[in-house]
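Hello Y.,

Per our agreement to keep a running log of every chain we model this quarter, I'm adding this entry. I've kept the format consistent with earlier entries: sequence first, then predicted structure.
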Amino acid sequence: MLEKIKNIEFLRFIFAIEIVYFHFFIYSKSVFPDFALYKKLFINSTDAFLCVEYFFIIAGFFMYYHLYYKNDSTFEYSINKIIRLWPLLAFSIFVIFLFSLFHFGKFHFYSNILNLLFLYCTGMLNFPVNNGHSWFICILFWVSIMYHYLHKCFDKKIFNLIVFGAVFCSYAILIQDTNGYIGSKAHMVKHLFSYGMLRGFASIGLGYFIGMLWQKISIYVKDFKIKNQFKSVLFFTAISALELYLSGFILYYSIFSKIEYKNNMIFIVAFVFLFLLFLAKKGILSKLLENNISVFLGKFSYSIYIMQAAGFFMTKPYLWGNKDFMYSHPYMNISLTVFVCVLIGILSRLFIEVKITKYLKDRLNNLNIEKSPTHQSN
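Predicted structure for the entry above:
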């Protein structure tokens, strides 16, 4: 069974913050349409959307261990996914609806109802919703269930072949259709699959294979030691330098500068190597982040991600309204907005997500106990 990987939780937290930063420029475009600085910062951060791909890959990695170490039905798996994902999605829509009553923004009523069914950007709902980033949750839900069901239908070799075909074909279609920029999500390919679904199939499937690879090599990686002290230090230095370079490369070209290379697959490849290095825990960065603080921060990544639209709704009339001040202090505007989004995410996790999820899990466990043969015979 897979042991707790603490440093990955820190990456999830950082990626959630990075996505909020990127979405700031999209949400604020209507308020600051001609602000040259924000245009420049937006262009520099356009590859930050790939953090969603990293989330997919991480989800696929853990999905591998779930498929081969937990013997649940697809129905049980789906129910647990709903319990995990739906409450905060519903709460985010409810909060935005309340804000809309005070004219903070327009509420897309019918689209949001369909969004509650995890349909956004699946091909069945491409109309605007208030929390557009929820497409990731919808795709994660359906693709995970599809993979789980296929795993139940086929033996491991056939299933692996299906996943490989899904990964290869999805990435190939995305790269060819978009000239290397895979950031689109709602566009349909041949009226069959949305870009969002293809991104989900590709990156979740890729994470699945990373899980398979890690299962095979983890024991050798953990037991690997170099007895010669000089070679050991040299090896540690080289691995540490690679960790720092890859993390710096991903961070720098996602936020601070736009990479000239036009194919986003370079970021996917870089993250895969960084992910494996963090799993190995042989370098300075992966060792430093392997702590309980990383686990604590990682718990808020989902709530920060899903509640960010509520944060933008809140800051638009109060923070962005004073344009003279905001033009004078543009970086403060960004920092305060991101802070509000993070704070709303943290509070939603503590007071909404945890409590509702616990209640639903307790109810589900009680129902399972009542339906068990032992309980019925008693």
